[in-house]
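Encode chain A's predicted structure.
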Amino acid sequence: MRARERHALEGALRDHYRAGEAVGAAPRALVEAVARELARPVRPGPLEVVAAQVRRIGAAAWVLHGALVLVVAVLALSGAPVDSAVGAVGAALALASLTEVTRSRSSGMVELEAACAVNAQAVACARALVLGCADALALLALALVSAGGSGAWTVLAQALAPYLAAFGAGLLAARRVASADATMAAVVAAVGVCAACVALRGLCPAAFAPASALAWWLAAALALAFATLEARSWLRAAESAFADAPLGAASL
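Encoded structure for chain A:
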């Protein structure tokens, strides 16, 4: 029941009982309010689910997204070379999103959400959609501020491949561990991809040369396939409240 309808009903009930009438507007208003509630669809529409998850995503995820883009923009405007760090930044963006997508499982709310009209699968899908769109904008901004012209496409691929790899690896790790450790496992996997990007830069600087753009786009395509498969597996597992996942120590 909406707040306006509730206030109107409370006012009608108050007036009814103050007047001491046997029959008045309040009982009729109560019956009408109940009828309106029963007439509403049990499951909200997709847009309502997505809008609700936008409000429920924690502020820390948005702050981390903004901070990463801001740091790269400041470094780029100051003339510092930032193209070599875009891979690690892309993986860090995935880390920020993974903490929200896996939060329900780590907090033990998946079983409860599985019984709700908007179940755990819908929640995970909506959060991934919202954060994925934000990540796409952040990666595009990262590429634009790091390089100009055709170089932006190379930088975008160098950030996109680690982002997708980190996202898929995080979902895989979070799905394979006990529920309480899901978010931590996802974070560790994403940090591992960040570290691999840093190590690759140190061991093979030629991998970040403009001539390697085709190889990075191929890596991004493979990472996209991997992340898509893991996202599909995560949504399927969320539908059954991760019934086949490993049990935590507390439940043994």
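The chain is about 75% helix and 0% strand.
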